[in-house]
Structures are given as structure tokens and as C-alpha cells.
Amino acid sequence: MSQPLEAADDAAETVAAVDLGSNSFHMVVARASGAELHVVDRIKESVRLAAGLDEKRQLSDEARSRALDCLQRFGQRLRPMPQGQVRAVGTHTMRRARGISDFLAQAEDALGHPIEIIYGAEEARLIYGGVAQDLGNNRPRRLVIDIGGSSTELIIGEGAKPQLIESVSLGAVVHTQRYFPKGKIDKQAWKSAVLGARVGLEALERDYRNAGWDVTIGASGSIKAVQKVCEQAGWSAQKITLDGLKQLGKALIKCGQLDKLDLSGLAEDRRPIFAGGTAALTAIFESLRIDEMEVSDKALREGLLLDLLGRLGDSGVREDSVTAAAARYGADHAHAERVAVTAHSLLEQNPQIPGGIRRNAQYLRWAARLHEIGLAISHKGYHRHGEYIVRNADLQGFSQSEQAVLAALVRLHRGRFRDEILSDLPAGQQLTTRWLALLLRMAILVHRGRDPQAKPSLSLQLEGEKLRVAFADGWLEARPLTREDLEREKDYLALAGYKLKITS
After folding, report:
1. I need a surface site. Which of 112, 161, 305, 382 has the fewest CB within 10 A?
2. pLDDT tens for residues 489-502?
3. According to DSSP H, which parts of 144-186 are helical?
């Protein structure tokens, strides 16, 4: 049972994570004490979002209603918290669903906080972080497996660092629907379910076996349910074994029907998807030749909390991801830093931009570091190449919407200012991204000569569709090429409906 925080809690020390999974929604609230987290409130509800996804990948009205009702209850607890201290993420079903922009807006309104849809690799990274917190960093090389409602994440890593990450379309809800559609469990259906899961795992078998690991850890509701049933039946103790899984499979076949499952330790809300989750886990054991598996209580939500603390501390994996990408594509670090400093100065002159100085400064800094990575492909149209790289690269720590914002900034840093580039962004992010792109363009323009000694002295004010830029006496006159660039910028912006006024 959840226990609410006392009113005297210091909000600055309180963080919350919301995991909108394909089967269950989880909310956890914790207080940070140094590097430790102390959970003070936790709620889990079975929403079965994946079960509401039809063959056209549309969410049913019933699934939407279940989800929104749950988020309304979560929102009662979380709405008073500052937005920067709550992180809510949608996983595989929300990644797959089509036409959910309206639903997402309703969900955010119900919760009272933004919801990010994260990539499978990012989901896996966060799961690993939660499990690593549970086990500590001095454990040997580990394989972490999480079977969700419609996807399975597999991660090999050492200490706190994941090294091999995969997310496959294999989940307890979807697998149950596919192989036990009428609730019937017979020998042929069971064999097909295990074999079907093995086919889905075939592409990663060799890489994972070659990488190797010392200990296997399971981290999901489906895996915990299997462990509990096997332990109470006497088929295994604490750990899940391959022999125990085989005995469990025989018991499911003998029972013959999902709604008649009478296994000690199996929770009622887990019963409808238990066969699919067990078949998936059996296939993983067989494919990767696992003998036994430990089970962790930690998972995605705990990883979210740790990642959120890293963000609040202005550190974390996103900085590392951008730095690594810039280095991989040979970006000019010194030039990028000069652009970033100027862009930040222009941002501070325009505090009216939604999102706050700190969050917006992060995007400007990241975009400044990455704006030239397309040069690794070709100078011609390199802003388009850069956009493609940023949009499709595995930038750990970034959600889909964050990566899309960053890609839009890279695309819009030069050439025609195409508003349609922003149309795919969430409505609430379009105006902010447009203004940040204008600041970034100006910062890049005044550094186009790449002279480290030419420190620009300028001010820029954004007022609707008007931009007013002013330079210190003599600075612009001494740089006729920059003056010409500004005149060209006037024309580019005029095509997008903006008016640039220059004074010096």
C-alpha cells in the first residue's frame, strides 16, 4: 500500500518516475539523500495497454480509458510536484501506436506532467541502471533481462555501464494474444510459442553468447511471477532454473486453459498473460543457454529516478552521448564551444522563451556541438545530413521527442528557415524550438569566420516575428563578410515570415 509524503517534505529533494508500460503503469516517488534514494510512495496498476492495440496499431477506446483513469489517480499525487522533478516515459506500445497525439495530450493533462516516448535502447539502458543500483557496482559481468508487455530488453554490462543493448518485439501480452488467443494452452500451442520467441531472438544469439556474462538477472513483473510460482511449487529456490521452467511449462499444458490456471503464488492480474511471459522466458533460456537466473526488484522506474537525479545535477548520460557523437563525426570542438557560449548569451537576453534558461541552454549547447557532424558525409547540404544522423543515431539518455528537437535545431541552423521541420514536434515544443533555432543561427553566423580571437559583442531581442540584433561600435564594420551573411539571413528569414533588423 502506498504511503503519502508528509506535508513537511522538502520538494527540492523529492523526485518521481512514471513508467507507462505495455501491461502495467508504475509510479514511484522517492527522496534523494546524497547518492541514495528512499522510496516513499509507490503505485502499480494493471492497464493492459498492449491488449488494446488492434491490427492497425490503433489504441482502443477501452485501453485509452483505462490509461487515463490510472493517470488521473497518479496525477493527484504528482501534480503539485515541479515538472523538472518528475519524469514519465512511455515504452513499446506507445512507440508502436499510431495517431496517439491526442491521447498523449490527454494523458499529460491527466498526469499534470510531460510524457516522453523513449526508444527501446533507451528503455534497456534505464532498466540496466535500475538493476545495477540494486546489485551494486562490484558484481561481475551481468546479463539483465526484462520481459514487458510487448517488448523484451536484454543488456550485458559490468558495474554501472551497459555494453551490449537490444530491445526485441517479444512481450507477455502480445505473445499470449498471438499463441493463446482463446486462452487454450496445449502442447502444440506451447511448442509454437517457445519456437516463435526463439525466432525473434535468433539475430542476437551469436553476439550475446560471444560477449559472455557471469550472472543473469531478471527484472520484470513477468519474471518475478515465474520465480514466485516455481519457488512455491518446489521447482526452484530463489533463482529460476531451466529445469524449473520446463516443469512450469508442463503444468501450463496440463491445466489447458488460461482462466483455469491455479498456480500457487500467481497474482490474479498476472494470470491472463502468464503463459506468454513464461514461453518467452523459456525461449530466452534456451536461446542464450542460461542455466539459472537471479531476480531483481528494481527495473525501469528505479533507473528513471537515477537518471532524473543526473539531469537535475546537470550531469549524466546525455552529455556523454553528445560528446561521443561529436567526436565520432569529427566535429570541431573548440569552434562548437564558442558557438555555444554565444548562443547561451543570446538566450539569457531572451528569458521569455518557454522552457527556462537551464533546459534551453542544454539544447543550445548540444546543438552547437553537433551542428557540423553532417560534414562527415558531405559539405553540400551538411545540415540535412546532420539532422538525419541526430534523428536516427542511438543517443543514449534522450527520449524520442528530445532527439527530434535536437535534430530540428541541427537542420535549421543554416539555409532556408523551414517551419515544416518543426511540424512533427509536440505542439508544446514547436514555438520554443523555433526561437532556439533563431538564436543558434545567429550564434553560428557571427562565428562563421572561425576566428577564436573574434569575440562577438552583440545583443538580440525576439519579439514575435521580429528580430532586433545590435553590435558594438565598429565590430560589424570590421567584418564585411559577416555583414553580407546577415543580409542573406534577412532574406532567408523573410521567407519564413520573420523580419530581421540590424543596427551597429
Report:
1. 161
2. 999 999 999 999 99
3. 172-179
Cell numbers placing 23: 501491461
Phi first, then psi, for residue 89 (nearest 5°) are: -130, 145
φ/ψ of residue 476, rounded to 5 = -75, -35
What stretch of H or E contains 363?
A: helix 357-370
Q: Are strands 466-471 and 142-147 parallel, antiparallel or unpaired?
A: unpaired
Q: Taking a C-beta distance cutoff of 8 angstroms, is the pair 128, 301 a contact?
A: no
Rounded Cα distance between 275 and 29, Å, is: 31
Rounded to 10 deg, the angle between the 357-370 and 400-411 helix axes is: 60
pLDDT the model gives residue 35: 60
Rounded Cα gap, residues 417 and 468, in angstroms: 17
pLDDT at residue 151 greater than cutoff 90: yes
Q: Are 22 and 46 in contact (CB under 8 A)?
A: no
Torsion angles phi and psi, residue 470, rounded to 5: -130, 140
Distance CA 260, CA 364 (A): 57
Q: What is the pLDDT of residues 314-373, one digit of tens each?
A: 556 888 889 999 999 999 999 999 999 999 999 999 999 988 888 899 999 999 999 999
Contact 167, 152 (CB under 8 A): yes
According to DSSP, the residues that pair with 156 across neighbouring strands are 143, 164
Write the pLDDT tens digit of every residue in 60-84.
Answer: 999 999 999 999 999 999 999 998 8
The residue written with cell numbers 488492434 in the block is: 54
State the helix-helix crossing angle for 187-211 and 274-288, rounded to 10 degrees.
Answer: 40
The pTM score is 0.76
